[in-house]
Amino acid sequence: MRRGALVPPLPVGKHWEEAESHALAMIASTRSKLSNDAAFSHASAALLHGLWVLTVPERPEVSQSTRPNMHAKSSLWRHHARLAHNDVATLDGLRVTTLERTIADCARTMRPRDALAVADSGMRAILHADRRTKEAEVARVAELRRRLRHMVDTGPPRGRRQARAVIAAADPYAESPMETVLRWVAVSRGLPAPEVQMPVHTRGGTFYVDLGWRWTLRRADGSTVVYVVLLEYDGEIKYVPGEGLVDSVDGAVAAVLAEKHREDLIRENRDHVLRRFSKGDVFDPDRAFARMLSVLPREVRAELTPVPELLYGTALRPHS
Fold first, then answer.
1. d(CA 121, CA 177)
2. What local confidence, expressed as pLDDT, does residue 246 receive?
3. Is residue 223 domain-shared with residue 122, that is, in the same domain?
4. According to the lineage, what is the superkingdom (predicted)?
């Protein structure tokens, strides 16, 4: 991994898994280089906590009280920060910023899309969020959001506007990183925050949909019309035996048929519009948003205003 630091051969497989294994090995190999008060932070801390990291860091990131030499070459990203005692936890013998501190740090410095994935998964981990008990957890979610906002407001000013927007948009009920990316496409371009894991009642029971909006609009003649727009992300390996939700071909067939039946039941509601998105869609945000626009009411499309802090970001990655 580096001079004097050897590890067993890393697993060869999917690109992301290889990158994650390499990043974790780099973290382990640089442990001895840290000063006493330094802690792994930002994307490295997110990886160690098991959060959703969309872009695996090439070098470990640490926070330290001494200012890094901005001109010296380093195998670390070094952030100048004074960490309070309650900002640091210990994981597998490593000093790591806490979940809350990691969320706040990533919200300031990552690309908005990536920061939102860390914030969603971090809030989910802290709250042990369960979509079935959302109504009972409103106060807990609001209190966590208040603490994160306070941490941002009292921390470094760099990236503060972006961090506030990320924390405001974060949702602990997101159930996958690609679901988060799909929501980022929508809210960064001006759509109101959707309901995450929205319950949809049908004659066959209640189903949860990844993202949903409900609009009740008044027409010129005084009548009202209801629009319900539902979005779902389909993972590439969701129905691959041994890889996703099933362990056999028969199981995959049954799962596909069950999903088709579920979708038919949802579509029986005449005011419901359902659109499915794949990985190729969410990583082409303009195309994905165009598909969303195609099913939005005219009145909603006319009022959309992009959110610059989420769309473009206000923070830059740190220097080495």
1. 8
2. 54
3. no
4. Bacteria
Q: Are residues 137 and 111 in the same domain?
A: yes
Same domain, 126 and 202: no
What span, in angstroms and rounded, lies between the C-alpha atoms of 53 and 186?
Answer: 20
Rounded CA-CA distance 79/313 in Å is 19
* Residues 6 or more apart in contact with residue 5 via CB below 8 angstroms: 29, 30
- pLDDT tens column, 81-108: 889 999 999 998 899 999 999 999 999 9
Find the domain containing 132 and state its range.
Answer: 15-173
What is the CB-side half-sphere exposure of residue 131 using CA atoms within 13 A?
15
| Domain shared by 77 and 34, yes or no | yes
- The type of residue at 219 is R
| Tally of domains within the chain | 2
Q: What is the pTM for the complete model shown?
A: 0.89
